[in-house]
Amino acid sequence: MRELALFAVPGVAFVLAVVITPVAIRLGLRFGIADKPGGRRTHAQITSRLGTLPIFVAFCGAALLGRAFGLPSDDDANERIRFIGLIAGSTLMFAVGVIDDRFQLRPAPQFIAQATAALVAIAFLIFIEFFHDPFTDQETQVARFVAIAISVLWFMGMTNTANWLDGVDGLAASVALIAGALTAVHMIREGQYSVALLPLALCGTLVGFLLFNLPPARIFLGGGAPLLGYILACLGIIAGAKVALLLLVMGLPIADVAWQIVARVIRGDSPTMGDRGHLHFRLQDRGWSARSIVVIYSAACLLLGTLSLLPIPRIAKLILLVVLFVGVAVTLALLARQVKSRV
After folding, report:
1. Would the pTM count as exceeding 0.85?
2. What is the pLDDT of residue 23?
3. What distances in angstroms separate CA 113 from CA 109, 180, 227, one per listed residue?
4. Confidence check: pLDDT of 41 > 70
5. Dihedrals φ, ψ of 202, to 5°?
6. In the Cβ-directed half-sphere of 55, how many Cα atoms lie within 13 Å?
7. In the chain, where are the structural domains located?
């Protein structure tokens, strides 16, 4: 039964994504939920941005199938509660994503929706309560209000990292696929087979979706990007608070987002203002193909994520994160200087 579930859940997710994505393409074009060429995008034709539809339906459908297998769990009661919270919060993110894709919401209502979805997850016991001190390797439990505040920041950080990463065809979905696969490997290694079905459902969904999203994309993620970030944030906690794993897997895009926020504030701009300052945009402006950018990001995320699974000291992982952040900041600063020198 266990082996059947581990293959059936991602397989069903893949089939659902392959079937529903073409429908989402047609619906997006028919109802004007599509991006025209121009602006920060470099696509050549009107493209549906209703990618949130196949992501939501395929993931949730396969996840529900996983629950039907009834695999044993060491924490069955809380696992059911967390599963409900994951589906409820994802449903909210899906609804807001569709509304945003259709009416282009301003940042404020989007952030409010993200915070609300985070509180939904927290209400269903998906929150960060314990931390491992990388210097002493001791586990520490924080006060509940501190746990809630940190958890909300975690959810919103992951949600917006995935959203801002969605600037090159197939990039956000490819990185999320790697994050989901490594999370599944960790859960299976820990014997959490019932919970491992969740990232496996996400992996199957993304493999099917990427058939249409890799460059040149026939559909964009749109509201599916923040939905992916939200799902990953949930999985990182459900996996046993393996936040460090996802921090390393997503280290490159997280460092990029942190740099962009700081750079925009220094310039006096709004941190939420869209521009082509992100690393993937700068590489694209320097002549890198979308496929090359996807490959280099995926390779970096896979390497960093694999390191997170190795039995190395936590302090080494922290140092690696710091080096990564500094490296991305220096790279972006040099690229920005080169742009200024050409102007």
Report:
1. yes
2. 98
3. 6, 24, 11
4. no
5. -65, -40
6. 34
7. 2-242
